[in-house]
Write a structure and sequence with these properties.
Strand content: 5-15%
Strand order of the largest sheet: 3-6-9-12-14-15
Helix content: 25-40%
Low-confidence stretches: none
Oligomer: single chain
Number of strands: 15
Number of domains: 2
Mean pLDDT: 78
CATH architecture of the largest domain: 3 Solenoid
Shape: elongated
Length: 270
């Protein structure tokens, strides 16, 4: 038992830069306390002492703000960061080295008995406020962005964001950009709070690609008009207005630049 506790605490140092000492983690991390309470409740649950197991999990919820059903299965080195508001259902299964943040729900979508909660593979990260619902499977090394609502299976190595959850990236070893993406991921890490300007928004991506396509068609149409006029025709007397994708994001980029300057101690408005 003590070896598992030591292993849990060591895993915190690998994933939370705020952790400073062994004693600090031991006494001030309610996410870990909830996991330790769950192990006790799980033992009674397996001994068919269901009421006592549920009572222990209720006490743990009062003390930690984390609700883990005693029937849930948790893997080794599982880490709940911050913890408050986390709910893990009865038939949920969590693999090894997984990390979830506050306000995450691993819930069900049915009142029928049986498997009704998610199964997480190894090394899965679920961002703050995300909801993973139903008897679905989250593959190894998957990433679920902040506040995403996932109701379908997620393949290994995928990143999911949005409501409903949409896959925005799947890492493939055969992808020529795999090495470059790995370097970027290593530099910036996974944005568990979804506040980074680099956060991949699938809707914005789709609109951007559509605008790129329209802009390219405008260029081709302009070239055709020039050739027709060169042959003696008279078309396209009025030039089409140039459509720049940047027009849709300049305000946001300007705001981001102002925030950067202010964080560096310079405020142009002063």
């Amino acid at each position: 038992m003590f070896e598992r506790i030591k292993e849990d605490i060591n895993s915190v140092f690998e994933r939370d830069p705020a952790a400073r000492t062994f004693f600090e983690v031991l006494t001030n991390y309610p996410g870990l306390h909830a996991i330790w309470w769950h192990r006790l409740a799980k033992w009674f649950w397996q001994k068919n002492l269901k009421w006592l197991a549920r009572f222990i999990s209720t006490i743990a919820r009062w003390l930690t703000g984390v609700e883990i059903h005693p029937g849930a299965t948790l893997g080794r080195r599982f880490f709940i960061d911050h913890g408050m508001g986390v709910v893990i259902g009865e038939t949920a299964e969590i693999g090894e080295d997984c990390t979830i943040y506050h306000s995450v729900t691993l819930g069900g979508t049915s009142w029928n008995a049986g498997k009704r909660h998610p199964t997480l593979g190894n090394n899965v990260v679920i961002g703050a406020g995300a909801k993973v619902l139903g008897p679905l499977h989250i593959g190894d090394n998957a990433r679920i962005g902040s506040n995403a609502v996932v109701v379908k299976d997620v393949p290994a190595e995928a990143t999911v964001v949005g409501i409903p959850g949409r896959i925005v990236n799947i890492k493939r070893d055969t992808d020529p950009s795999h090495e470059q993406r790995s370097k970027i991921a290593k530099r910036y890490g996974f944005d568990a709070y979804a506040v980074s300007p680099d956060n991949p928004d699938p809707v914005a991506k789709a609109i951007g690609r559509m605008l790129d396509h329209v802009h390219l068609m405008d260029q081709k149409l302009t070239d055709i008009c020039k050739e027709v006029n060169h042959l003696g025709g008279s078309v396209c007397d009025q030039a089409l207005p140039t459509l720049r994708v940047g027009e849709f994001v300049e305000d946001e980029l300007a705001a981001a630049e102002r925030r950067k300057e202010q964080s560096a101690g310079f405020d142009p408005q002063i």
